[in-house]
Design a protein that fits this description.
35% helix, alpha/beta, 5-stranded parallel beta sheet, 15% strand, 472 residues
């Protein structure tokens, strides 16, 4: 342990942002990095607990105290090697993970956890800047071929692991570029797409072959992949959005978040929108239905597009400002979280639901809302009317899309409609077909997707070779 008394000597130092008035004028990342000396002091705050609960909070089991100690000593190169031994893409998680590790930190008992996420991002950027992240192509090929369907974080992590042990890996992606929600869902101001591109290039240099603009079940049949490859991994995500079947839902101007957000990401990158009508918030009163991260992304994007007003609706009651530590720690607590997008300008209404939409000339003009009871039913006499020119539904995702590949394969589904497979081996009901990420577990975090991709790769390698050296 580098600094035994560090947690007593140094306060938690949060990352700072560009002022809201400045950052809403562009789509670039707006965090202001800490100086090396400040990062090393933050790493010194790690208590290196006898039972490090941060491990429990981290789905990929990052060895957090180890690389905190290395950063405190200024040994970023060894820290980067340690970090990448458990996480293929710490530059993703260091930007967009909600950091359950910090919630589990012992110092969070005093609302001052170690800034694990900031340290992780700093290590990763140091590794890129100093050229430590060189491609690691396999020294020998196994002669086995694996198809990965879906180039999101689960598919990318699995592809990298499988390629590095010598398998011939082909990734099939329906979009023009890789990344899944990292590219087409999360705004550029939270995750610059150059961060994704450099990882894709790393995979290509390690021998992974990408097939873009290829929809499995349409451009190539699912059965064809099963016939051509020794194993097939399904990592297509959970893309079926939760709808709101209220009266007036079919009015123009009401869209799913994942119709709205990908358009702006394509504009920023110069990628054509395709044959769809533009969805823009400029000059409009916007209502975002759903209080999670996707709703927050809709807020930040709407503000940057020039919305006149943004109102966010959340059906759950307003959570407490602070959690009861002794009741929740080291688990992820339910408490009020205010994102950078909320700070940029949005009214938040809790414990309400949209009861109907009204419009004129076929387009939405009003959202009628009401407070809800404990069973989420509207309470009579609490109705209000919100002006709305654009309504964005950001209520999460219910399952993978079944039409096409999943139905064609006939793989078993669980009770929620996800592809049925266990964390023991990630094998589906169909021989040599595996599933991982949101397609298997349902809507989740990028860090869970990376974990599942890594673990599925291990199971596939074991299935193909009878043994494996890939980590569990």
């Amino acid at each position: 342990m580098g600094k035994v008394t560090g947690f007593l000597e140094y306060d938690r130092q949060e990352l700072k942002y560009q002022p809201a008035a400045d950052r809403i004028r562009h789509y670039k990342e707006f965090t202001l990095p800490l100086a090396d000396a400040d990062v090393e002091r933050q790493a010194a705050r790690c208590m290196e607990c006898g039972v490090p609960y941060c491990h429990r909070g981290c789905p990929v089991n990052n060895q957090i105290p180890d690389w905190n100690d290395l950063v405190y000593d200024g040994d970023y190169e060894t820290a980067a090697a340690n970090l990448h031994s458990t996480n293929n893409f710490p530059d993703f998680t260091g930007r967009i993970c909600p950091a359950p590790c910090e919630a589990s930190c012992t110092l969070n008992l005093f609302d001052a956890p170690v800034t694990i996420k900031t340290i992780e991002a700093t290590i990763s950027e140091k590794a890129w800047t100093n050229g430590w992240l060189v491609p690691q192509p396999a020294k020998a090929k196994t002669g086995k071929k694996v198809a990965v369907v879906g180039a999101g974080p689960a598919g990318l992590a699995a592809a990298q692991q499988l390629a590095r042990v010598g398998h011939d890996v082909h990734v099939y992606e329906k979009n023009a570029k890789a990344g899944g929600l990292l590219r087409y869902g999360i705004p550029d101001f939270k995750l610059d797409k150059g961060v994704v591109e450099r990882r894709v290039k790393q995979l290509v240099d390690e021998g992974v072959e990408f097939h873009f603009n290829t929809t499995v079940g349409l451009d190539v049949s699912a059965q064809e992949l099963v016939d051509l490859y020794d194993a097939v991994l399904l990592t297509g995500g959970a893309e079926k959005p939760r709808d709101l079947p209220a009266p007036g839902r079919n009015l123009g101007g009401i869209h799913f978040a994942m119709e709205f957000l990908p358009q702006q990401n394509r504009r920023v990158s110069g990628e054509p929108l395709g044959e769809v009508a533009p969805i823009l918030a400029g000059g409009k009163h916007v209502v975002v239905i759903g209080g999670g991260d996707t709703g927050s992304d809709c807020i930040g994007t709407s503000v940057r597009q020039g919305a006149l007003s943004v109102t966010q609706l959340e059906i759950m009651p307003r959570p407490p400002e602070k959690e009861d530590k002794l009741a929740t720690w080291p688990n992820w607590p339910i408490k009020l979280r205010t994102s950078s997008s909320h700070e940029e300008g949005a009214e938040r209404l809790f414990g309400v639901t949209a009861t109907r939409f009204e419009g004129a000339d076929g387009r939405v003009t009003e959202v009628h809302i009401a407070e809800v009871d404990a069973r989420f039913q509207p309470i009579a006499g609490t109705e209000k009317v919100l002006k709305a020119d654009l309504v964005l539904l950001a209520m999460g995702f219910v399952s993978p899309v079944h039409e096409g590949m999943i139905d064609a394969l006939g793989v078993a589904k669980d009770g929620r409609g996800n592809v049925k497979a266990t964390e023991d081996d990630y094998a589906t009901s169909m021989q040599k077909v595996f599933a991982a990420g949101d397609m298997r577990r349902g809507q989740s975090l990028v860090v869970w997707a990376i974990r599942e991709g890594r673990q599925a790769a291990r199971s596939i390698d074991l299935f193909l070779m009878g043994r494996t050296e890939l980590p569990r």
